[in-house]
Structures are given as C-alpha cells and as structure tokens.
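Hi F.,

I've been meaning to write this up properly since the lab meeting, where we talked about keeping a consistent format for the predictions we share between groups. The idea is simple: the sequence comes first, exactly as it goes in, then the structure tokens exactly as they come out, then a line or two of notes. No screenshots and no reformatting. I'm using this chain as the first example so we have something concrete to point to.
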Amino acid sequence: MSTNTLKYFFTLLFFALPIQAQMNYFDWNTVLHMPPGANIKVGNQILHFNPSNKPYLKDATATKFVNTHLSQAKKVESDAEALKMASDLVCLDGAFIELGVCTGKTINFIAALNPHKKIFGFDSFEGLPEDWVRQDNTMPKGTFGYKNPMMLPPVLHNVVLIKGWFKETLPIFVQEYLKNTPIAFLHVDSDIYSSAITALKTLKNNIQEGTVIIFDEFYNYPGSEDHELKAFNEFLETINLQAKYCAFNINHEQVVVQMVNTANQIKKN
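Output, unedited:
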C-alpha cells in the first residue's frame, strides 16, 4: 500500500471520529469541592487541576527564593517531570509515601514509575482540614474533599490508601507498620502548614539520610512561605540532616529535596 493511500485512510478515520468528544475532560466538579479556576486547560502541568504554567521569573519573591536556595538545582518544566526526577533520585530500600491523595493522579503516576514498590497514600478525602490562607486568596475548609464521603479515587494495584487525618493515621502507621523502616520517597501534597508539620514530625525518625522529599506547594505562590516551606524549615531545625535541593518546577510550585549528611556523599545504588 502506497504512502498516499495510507494518508488517505488515516484522514478518513480521523475526520470520522467525534473530535469534540475526544477533547472533553473529566469534570472534577461533579465529585469534588473544587476551588475557582481549577479546570483551566492551558499549560503542561498535567497532574494538577489547573495545568496553567506560571513561570517563577514573573514573581519577585519566587525569583529571590530560586536565586538564594535553588541555584544549583535542576530545572524541570512540569509536575510530572518533577515527580519523575524525585523517583529517579531514590537510593534507599524503604517506604514510598504520599501525603495528600485527592484524585489519585499523582499516586498512580508514582506507582507506575515504581511498579515493584507498594505506595502508601494518606488522605482524609474530606478536603482541607482548615482554611488555606494565602496572600492572593483563601481556599475554605473542605476544598478538594469528595462530595460523596464514601467515595475514593481508583488506584493501581500497588497503591494502598489509608483514609483519615494525618494526626490520626500516621502515628498508627509508624508504630504498627513502618517501625524502623526508612522512608525512601515522600510526596508532601498537604497544601497547608498544620498538615505538613504534623506529618513531618510524626515521620521524623523514618526520614533519614538519602530520603527524597518532593513538596507540591513549596514556593511560587503568594504566601508560600507560611505553609509547606515553613513546616519544612521548622522540621530541619529538629534533625541532624540537611536538605539538598535537587530540582524544582520552573512553571509551578514543586521542589525536590534529598536529605543529606554533609559528611557523606549520597550515591544512588
């Protein structure tokens, strides 16, 4: 069959399909209490509700933070690339944990990147436990929660969801399951300070040299210094490790760090 004939048949096939239907996206408003503007379809942040790019260079505070703390870190351009980078940095034989699951998109992505690992996801699925007060707006308590309290997101076979508030579920998880196991990979998508600091304090003894942590809302939005960033800085004051900033999303809010002992050099196994 000639090339022109193939092109002809592909053209017929393409134009015979309902193009508008192909471009439809799932409307999360049908199942979640969503923030305004969450369904804007511009940009390459494929795992977030709002894929819009927001280059850090357009924000003076974010630019200063990058110049001060992230000048040696690798630049990535999307949320998926940041998670892939964090996954590639894993050097410990330990637990994989996500704090804040919501739709399940990121935990499924992590699970697909690590098919031989069990990924534990923690979420109340009731949304924010308190108002997320930012400098640009306030997202009310309950935002991102499921409208049906019995609903959970579909997940891959190597994902385990643990429903409940961090302060209730994490201590039991550490005591009964994690024990002395190090955390290899930790995705902190808790949004607000109180949730992040609760989780980090609870997991303190399992966050060890080599642990990779990716924060989802670390910088590049008005008021970011009051939430995940603040919690992490306070956490660092309580441990004998330092944070090596490894990568950051130039178009969004993700930052990847690895916990290091300055006396040793982290090497991937």
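Notes:
Residues 19-23, 265-269 have pLDDT under 50 and may be disordered.
The first helix runs from residue 3 to 16.

If this format works for you, I'll send the rest the same way.

G.
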